[in-house]
Amino acid sequence: MDFVFRRSYRGGLKAVILDWAGTTVDYGSFAPTAAFIKVFASHGVTIELGHARAPMGLMKKDHLRAISRLPEVAARWQAGHGRPCTEGDVNAMFAEFVPLQIEVLADYAGLIPGTLETVREFRAQGIKIGSTTGYTREMMNVLVPEASRNGYEPDALVAANDVPAGRPYPWMVYRNLIELGVFPAEACVKIGDTLVDIEEGLNAGLWIIGLALSGNELGLTRTEAEALPPEARATRRHEIRARMLQMGAHYVADGIWDAAEAVSEIQARLAQGERP
To answer: How many CA atoms lie within 13 A of 106 on its CB side?
Structure first.
């Protein structure tokens, strides 16, 4: 009888792959939403904030396409244009979206509280810092210098159009691992605030930490989030946490400010030979 022995990684974590908007910058992930609403309005179709947020985390052209396919938005497009939204329409909207997004990105480059402290803690443990995003490289060329001025510089950055396809495909994560020089995948953690962040990390074979309160799922500014009555805050946290765990997250933290505790839990599970 032949036996197959499977290697079990028992080392420590080597890298954390962080999202950008809603995770390390732009509390509540507001930079893209106004631009999406404005672009659809320019084509005679009204969309609400919920429509703009629904596919958050995707590469921005994919995001526009996903909004156009939401049943309510598709019906409005059909009513206004007498036909469905086409790929040509998506291309035209994306061409309009890019300069609108670039124009406002610097205004939303503020770091989310705890980013620098958490990154510092990771690096003290020998953990490298990678990053993925739904933004294109052109957009990141605006955002990265602003984040750098605020003290945040990941060791690697892969934008959505640096690879054949953005989230939920794992290519951005894989390219991060190559640039960081780390393997295996189970020695790495993906941290992000959207459901598609979780899907991206799972597809790449990483451990996943979702962030419930700092990003798109809650969709509030820091001031608004902190002003929520305790019961309402707890209810929203519970709902978001349930969605993220159902999607496959291994842990859910409120924000990057308390993600280090979940990373410590993952370190302990790795030491026991567990895999994501």
So the answer is: 8
Q: Which residue type does 247 have? A: M
Report angle CA 12, 13, 18 to the nearest 5 degrees.
Answer: 170
Mean pLDDT per 10-residue run, the chain (276 residues)?
65 96 96 91 93 89 94 95 95 94 92 98 97 96 96 97 96 98 96 97 97 95 94 96 97 97 94 87
Find out whether 15 and 175 touch, Cβ atoms under 8 Å: no
Bridge partners of 189, per DSSP, are 16, 207
Radius of gyration of the chain (CA): 19
pTM over 0.85: yes
- Cα gap 57→208, rounded to integer Å: 15
Q: How far apart are CA 141 and CA 148, in angstroms?
A: 11
Q: Residue 19 catalytic?
A: yes
Q: How far from the centroid of its chain's Cα atoms is residue 238's Cα?
A: 20
15-30+109-271 CATH: 3.40.50.1000
Closest alpha carbon to 31 in 104, 123, 96, 83:
104
CA–CA gap between residue 170 and residue 203 (Å, rounded):
6
258: closest CA among 108, 109, 111, 117?
Answer: 117
CA distance 202 to 204: 5
- What residue segments make up the domains of the chain, in order of their start? 15-30+109-271, 32-107
CATH superfamily of 32-107: Putative phosphatase; domain 2 (1.10.150.240)
- CB neighbours (10 Å) of residue 5? 5
- The one catalytic residue among 14, 60, 61, 128: 60
Nearest to 15 by CA among 265, 170, 175, 185: 185
The catalytic residue among 19, 89, 193, 197 is: 19
Which residues partner with 188 through β-bridges? Answer: 15
